[in-house]
Amino acid sequence: MAPIQRKLTAILAADVHQFSKLMGDDEAGTLADLRACRQIVDAIIAEHHGRIFGSAGDSVVAEFASAVSAVLCAVECQRAIAQRNAQADARPLQFRIGVNIGDVIVEGDNLYGDGVNVAARLESVARPGAVCVSAKVYDEVRRKLSDIRFVDGGAQKLKNIEDPVAIWHVGPTGAAAPGQAAPVAASAAVPTTAQKPVVAVQAIRLISGDDEAKALAEGLTDAIGDALARQTALTVRSGDAAGADFVLKGSVQAAGKRLRLSFGLGEGVSATQVWTQRYDRQLEDVFGLQDEIVLHVAAAIRIRVKAQLFERLRDADNGTLAVPQLLDKAAGIFIRSLDRGGVAVSTLRLAVERAPGNSMAHAMLGFGLFRVADYCATSMPEGTRDEIVFALDRAIVLDPRSYFARAMKALALQDLLGDARAAHEQTSEALKYNANFIPAKGMLAIAEIHLGNVAEGTRLLQEVMEASPDDANQHRHRRELAIAHLLAGNAGEAVRVAARLWEEMPDMKRNALVLAGLLAAAGDTEAARRHVAALKAETPGLTLETVRLPHFGDQSAGERFRTLLRDSGL
Fold first, then answer.
1. What is the mean pLDDT of the chain?
2. Cα(157)–Cα(163) distance, rounded to whole angstroms?
3. Which of 317, 390, 427, 527 could form an S-S bond across to 443 if both were Cys, CB 3.0 to 4.6 Å?
4. Residue among 463, 233, 234 at smallest CA distance from 363
5. Are 249 and 207 in contact (CB under 8 A)?
6. Per-residue pLDDT tens over the stretch 212-253
């Protein structure tokens, strides 16, 4: 057998965005437009000494001896197509182009291998009218093409490519060659610091008290500022309130060991108070008290800032919003409602479409899909579950330090896959990056409960719920608290917690399901049967085979819960 011939080469892959749809709308006209564009593209490839070796339908695949030539060709193709699209009599076609360097197998006139496959996948994640290159290409050309700006797209998991690929956007996402179309705002790729709300943290005033109270006030000022600085959605400033979007003020009064701590968050321009809170405590464990107050204040500010931003964006057309604003709007929906209609999901799908390299967009989409599914008592469709897991995995690949993505991955691991140990690992990692992130602390507590540390997990979960009663995960925290009471042998308290949750959120059928099982565990068989009968009437086809049961770390406890529901008529 003849040895396989290989070579290292630069590959350019291009196709037309939404070509199938365009063909469906006007087949003959679209083909005529494609022929006109291909004449332009083919000529530019030849000018840059490229060789076309693949062409099917709307796609073009070419090789170049030089990565610089391939990138220049790609940029020139987009510039020329943009000029063609701008003509009054032209119906626009938008190309997406990917460029990669790789080792390929040569077989006659064709090339095969990952070098080609990655280029094709880069083309699929390029924005319409733009170019996307691999990190290998970027490293090769960045110093040689100083007039072209590149925008970091992060590491992405590309379809059928085993390892994540670091990508860079070129063209309308960034800068560009002379005469090229105007760049899209950088916010279409990732949120920029300038777009984050600025919170000014002013020094906490000591109204009365001794040196110990003074030290507490100073320590709280620093600790709250540090905790807020770890919130990736905020920019934190110490002291100076000029130009800040929000201003945090606080004071400490001490009378012996009695303390009164007061805080207020105001909007920067209007000075309108959006949050105030008073804490009456005993000055005994200074560090423990400081940790408690910081947790409460940081959680409250995160929620209140997002709520205020949402009020400004509530009625805005999503098409007019930049990606960071889309994320703010979705976050506000999570806080203000439980989003049964999936409004946040559609907002986040748009964010992901516009910014496929944005970790937060993927992580929030995974969470949004999870919340919508929580309304249903039946098992989550396999496609939805897979999409949630994929979105969260991609978010972590794009930003391994994202405490939000890791906390949401922990939620999926425990609630969808029943892996409490892996969930514990993810939450522990999340808390390394933000020790005061309430959703991560809540997931840590839930993992502890299902790993057998019921008392400690319950204590931590109650602490989290008290610190942030408005957190978007509050309903799940309360449902898991009810289960924790059951595991601790207190079925009556479990019913009390679950019944109140069901009364407040009757549309969330998973709550009714858990309540039915807990009622049966407490011996109230008739009430359990009524709840199961109501669930079956509202959910045709609900059986023990189709139901979405809560996951228990203790398999025998899960089996007992299943039996209780069966005995209650399911």
1. 87
2. 7
3. 427
4. 233
5. no
6. 899 999 999 999 999 998 888 888 888 878 888 899 999 999
C-alpha 517/C-alpha 567 separation (Å) is: 10
Distance CA 306, CA 329 (A): 8
Q: What are the start-end ranges of the H helices in 469-554? A: 474-487, 491-504, 509-521, 525-538
Q: What is the largest CA-CA distance in the chain?
A: 91
With a CB cutoff of 8 Å and minimum separation 6, the contacts of 204 are 217, 218, 220, 221, 249, 250, 251, 252
Residue length of the chain:
570
Please identify which residue in the block is written with the tokens 């049966």: 520
The pLDDT value given to residue 363:
96
Using a 10 angstrom Cβ sphere, with 0-12 exposed, 13-18 middle and 19 or more buried, the burial of residue 229 is middle
- The H or E element that residue 82 is part of is helix 67-85
3-class SS of residue 543: coil
What is the phi/psi pair of residue 547, to 5°? -75, 150
How many Cβ atoms are within 10 Å of 416's Cβ, its own excluded? 18
Both tokens of residue 92? 């626009």
- Structure tokens, 245: 């979007």
CA dist 472 and 187 (Å) reads: 25
pTM score? 0.65
DSSP-derived 3-state class of residue 93: coil
Measured CA to CA, the distance from residue 434 to residue 298 in angstroms comes to: 11
Whether residue 283 contacts residue 257, with contact meaning beta carbons closer than 8 Å, is answered with: yes
C-alpha triplet 223, 228, 232: angle, nearest 5°:
145
Listed in sequence order, the DSSP H helices in 339-453 are 343-354, 359-373, 382-398, 403-415, 420-433, 438-450
